[in-house]
Amino acid sequence: MASAFVRINEKKLKKLVDESSGTGALLQGRVDSVEGKANSSSSGFRTGIYHRPGGEKVGNTQPTYKGNVTKGRKGYVGIVYTGNYSAMKDNYENNTLLKSL
To answer: What is the pLDDT of residue 55?
Structure first.
């Protein structure tokens, strides 16, 4: 009966998985999911109207959460972030991004 010995170089395997396009696509799906949950759960939230020092009006809009995936030095990185003032305030008051995970 023949026997075989397989040795796996874990560092090379990790590097291969981290830099794989499939990993990027999988991460993009997860980012899209979290972004969608955050946007749908905060759809009824509105802030008051505020004026910034330059006279710019902000507020009274629907919160918008955005996300993206980029390839860094050590692999893909996905992030979901607040896209406007209403989303910042909604996330501050309700922890929307944390709840969307």
So the answer is: 84
